[in-house]
Design a protein that fits this description.
Blueprint (H helix, E strand, L loop, with lengths): L6 H8 L5 H5 L3 E5 L5 E6 L6 H18 L10 E4 L2 H5 L4 E3 L6 E5 L19 E6 L6 H14 L3 E6 L8 H4 L10 H8 L13 E2 L7 E5 L9 H8 L13 H16 L3 E5 L6 H9 L4 E6 L3 H16 L3 H4 L3 E8 L5 H16 L28 E4 L10 H7 L2 H22 L4
Parallel strand pairs: 1-5, 2-3, 6-10, 6-11, 7-9, 7-10, 11-12, 12-13
Antiparallel strand pairs: 1-2, 4-5, 8-9
Helix pairs in contact: 1-3, 5-15, 7-8, 11-13
Amino acid sequence: MTTFDEILPLAKDIFGNPTEYIKKLEWIILNRDLNGRVRLIAPESVLSNEEGRKAIEELYQSLADRLMSHAYPLERGILYEEDKETACQGASSFLLGNFPNIWVVDRLATESRWETIAEVSPNSPRIVYFSIKGGVGRSTALAASAWTLARQGKKVLVLDLDLESPGLSSALLSPTRQPKYGITDWLVEDLVDNGDSLIDDAYATSDLPTAGSIHIVPAHGNNLGDYVAKLGRAWMPKTRHPSSPETWAKRLNRLINTLEDRLKPDVILIDSRAGIDEVAAACVTDLGAHTILMFAIQGQQTWTGYRALIDHWQQRGVITDIRSRLQIVAGLVPDDDRRLEYLELLRADAHALFEGTYDTVKPGAISDWSFEEDDDTAPHSPLPIRWNRGWYGLLSLQQRMIQVDENEVNSVYGPLLDFLDRALLGENQTW
């Protein structure tokens, strides 16, 4: 029996001894379909070459013999296309191991595209607050960050993209200031070209006393309406043209760009949905994030989830496109004598996670991307957030934000806030 996880290792083995003809081909695609079955896609020019057609057929037969139920019969297992772009049909591709002309294309049932890393947005820096699991203090940390940055005189735009578990806006907005609409409303109305008409009613300004301002775009408006039905449509692609639908992630980017043009924020804070799904993928990889704060608590579930992501990026060859944007944040750090041990264990596990992303440096050589475990400037070095009963949970946080003072915020979130100051100062030296 062969399982899905064995497809690529077995394919590497099969392609390990290619014929001279296979070596000379500009491209071959290993196509994994929605059911996890594999076909080969080769250039149409192969059809007019008897030697080439025979080489491709023998290659696929060898592959099918090893993949068993994850392959097709020979007569259905090979497709031919004019060029690689047409063969991919818009799906992303990555090289199979070190083979220079063998590409892998995955056809997925969702729009989750963790391997497509958007370039950093050239406008306001976008900071994504992300976690593998909920209940780690991520949203509360974002609220405290927004308040602190606004206290410094900055104009902050906050987006609550945890649409299935909304609540961030309650920390920054009093009930009377909740806007009429939210992100979910816009995503649904945009499908029928009605999104622009509600932009002005999809955000509100916090009345927290700050020198700057906080503009919040909540997950939903002050009236939930038929929220479950709307949520079931929010992730839909928009069909502008049958051959090139606009994914929901691109639609979301369009919303953020529109808000950015109107509000001219100094920084955009994005509360991502927890977990590894298409919503989190959009927040982390598709929105041009300047920094991705990876919230972690000590425990196997945290590191198993993050390991899956790092391994995915490494296998797809895109880890170097995103690694410099990542930063571990330690949530719920005990506020007692267990603190140091907790952080030491978390740092060790975070270093084990990041170690494979660091450059291998020979003795005497220097690299911009190689960090020792005890290096406090490393992305694996956790920014600790001290557990504090008064800050735990969002239900009463809006009142808490009104009464809080700067010293208390710094005592809980100081290392995170210092990191943001350094990150944003590097982005804009005028601040």
